[in-house]
Design brief:
This protein has 347 residues and is of the alpha+beta class. It is 37% helix and 24% strand. The chain has a seven-stranded mixed β-sheet, sandwiched between helices. Strands 1-2-3-6-4-5 form a six-stranded mixed β-sheet. The radius of gyration is 20 Å and the shape is globular. The protein binds adenosine-5'-diphosphate and magnesium ion. Magnesium ion is lined by residues 47, 92, 95, 232-233, 235.
């Protein structure tokens, strides 16, 4: 890819996936596939595909967790890995405002894994499945000498129109459920230790990293409100995932860093590590909160309504702007702030 050229449009001439980047790669695949067939309302480009079957609307999503890339068996018990693998897929269904129903698991297992380990893994999967009303109905098994692989596919259902990434309009408020940055703080503790942070704070952020909670009920309330315009789950970090909403909606945005919801445990761990927690909140990823936009007039009511019905706090963190303004982050004094991009598998 030469300077100034869009890597995604370089197509076959781009040498490697590193040059293309994860987003460029997906765009490349999207262009190569035949147009979607009968019953496909939405193909590649959102958190889940949308298909219609009679009068029902189904959501389809798949996400894999790979040892050495997404987790290390040294720092994550197999029960947590199983629970998280299903949770991150459920989160993509939640991001469309749907309810998860059925799952398939393709498992790549190192031959030296014990049966007790496999049981732990399935116990974790079972915990998430039960919590969210998902039935594990099948899968596939292969030997994977290089490391454990869990590839999950989840089918969900939505009443009415699912909430896509593409509906944000200038003037809309940007909202987020829960808090941001805890999962990244947890990863820092798992990789580098707690330092001087209190054990309770370290434990809380590790738990956020190992056991993310998909926001299914919240997503459903947000979609049913009729006042939300776009939604995504925060898997790769606020900057990257808001970027996806902006790309699909053809818009820009302003985010006020001082308004980002960051919990006390994350702040304590950041202090102990000598870093600014804002970086984790913006670029960290794996929080699996819902990031959504809503009509400005109804945003505060919607935020209150979600909290009332689910107990989950919701915060307004910025506004959608015209595309020409790009994505800007402002510090507490209103000065522009440069942020690191979020996670990219090929960067
Ligand atoms: P998420 O972070 O919500 O899981 P991704 O960034 O993984 O979303 O994927 C974005 C979109 O690209 C989704 O619609 C997904 O189905 C699609 N996608 C990702 N990888 C591939 C692939 N290798 N082939 C076809 N579609 C893909
Ligand atoms: Mg997603």
């Amino acid at each position: 890819v030469t300077a100034g050229e869009d890597p995604a449009s370089a197509g076959g001439r781009a040498g490697t996936l590193r040059e293309l980047g994860e987003r460029g790669f997906i765009d490349h695949v999207r262009r190569r596939l035949r147009p979607p067939g009968r019953g496909v309302t939405l193909g590649i480009g959102d958190d889940a595909a949308v298909v219609t079957l009679g009068d029902r609307t189904l959501l389809l999503t798949t996400d894999a967790l790979l040892e050495g890339v997404h987790f290390r068996r040294r720092t994550a018990p197999l029960r947590d890995i199983g629970a998280k693998a299903l949770a991150v897929n459920v989160s993509d269904i939640a991001a469309m405002g749907g309810e998860p129903r059925w799952a398939l698991l393709a498992l790549g297992v190192p031959p030296d894994l014990s049966v007790a380990d496999v049981d732990e893994l399935y116990d974790g999967l079972g915990e998430t499945a039960e919590r969210h009303g998902v039935s594990l109905v099948g899968g596939d098994t292969t030997a994977a000498p290089a490391g454990l692989l869990l590839s999950l596919t989840v089918v969900g259902e939505v009443e009415g129109a699912p909430l896509r990434r593409s509906g944000a309009r200038p003037g809309d408020a940007i909202l987020v459920t829960g808090t941001l940055g805890a999962a990244a703080a947890g990863l820092a503790v798992l990789e580098h230790g707690a330092g001087s942070a209190a054990p309770e704070a370290a434990e809380a952020v590790c738990r956020a990293h190992r056991r993310p909670t998909p926001r299914v009920a919240e997503g459903s309330v947000i979609r049913a409100s009729g006042t939300a315009t776009a939604m995504i789950d925060v898997s790769d970090g606020l900057a990257t995932d808001l970027g996806h909403i902006l790309e699909e909606s053809g818009a820009g945005a302003v985010v006020r860093l001082a308004d980002l919801p960051i919990d006390d445990a994350t702040r304590a761990v950041a202090r102990a590590h000598g870093v600014d927690e804002t970086g984790w909140a913006v670029s960290g990823g794996e929080d699996y909160e819902l990031l959504f936009t809503a009509d400005r007039q109804h945003a505060a009511t919607l935020a209150r309504d979600v909290t009332l019905k689910t107990g989950t706090p919701v915060r307004i963190v910025g506004e959608i702007a015209p595309a020409a303004e790009g994505l800007r982050f402002l510090d507490a004094a209103g000065r522009p702030h440069v942020v690191r991009p979020g996670f990219d598998h090929f960067a």
